Amino acid sequence: MPELTRRRALTTAAALTAAAGVRTAVAPGASAAEHHHGSPEAFDEVYKGRRIQGRPASGGGHHHDHGAGYAVFVDGVELHVMRNADGSWISVVSHYDPVPTPRAAARAAVDELRGAALLPFPAN
User: How far separated are the first and last CA of the chain, in Å rounded?
Assistant: First the structure.
């Protein structure tokens, strides 16, 4: 029997984690509209006193579209979002905490900002 090494243990753990993730092709909590059309539904609401909005983007001249053609705003300032390969979403504010929808990304950003203003993110 081969000796259990740290590398073998980490490789096995990574393989098991990947296999468990394969079962969920789309992030948990995503709506049927997201699955059918490939783009989340538009939203416009006040969350903790901040206006958050999301809608399909019209292109806007970006040469690379990580947000899958979707724009999110907090108090009128664009929150850059990106859709991950597993269907989850992250934002420039909560980059290490993936969430199931752009609405959840906007809410997470408001939570993280704790009342601070979202500053415009310079596009390259």
Answer: 54
Which residues of the chain have a pLDDT value below 50? 1, 16, 19, 21-36, 61-65
Place of tokens 């992030």: 27
Cα–Cα distance for residue pair 102/39, rounded to 1 Å: 10
Is 69:82 a contact under the CB 8 Å cutoff? no
Residue 99 has a CB neighbour count (10 Å cut-off) of 21
Residue 21's SS3 state is helix
Cα distance between residue 83 and residue 99, in whole Å: 10
Compute the chain's Rg from CA coordinates: 18
Assign 89 to helix, strand or coil.
Answer: strand
Distance in angstroms (rounded) separating the CA atoms of residues 42 and 102: 9
pLDDT tens by residue, 6-35 = 666 556 655 545 545 444 344 444 444 444
Rounded Cα–Cα distance for residues 93 and 80 (Å): 8
Q: Look at phi and psi of residue 79 and say left if phi exceeds 0, alpha if psi is from -120 to 50, else beta.
A: beta
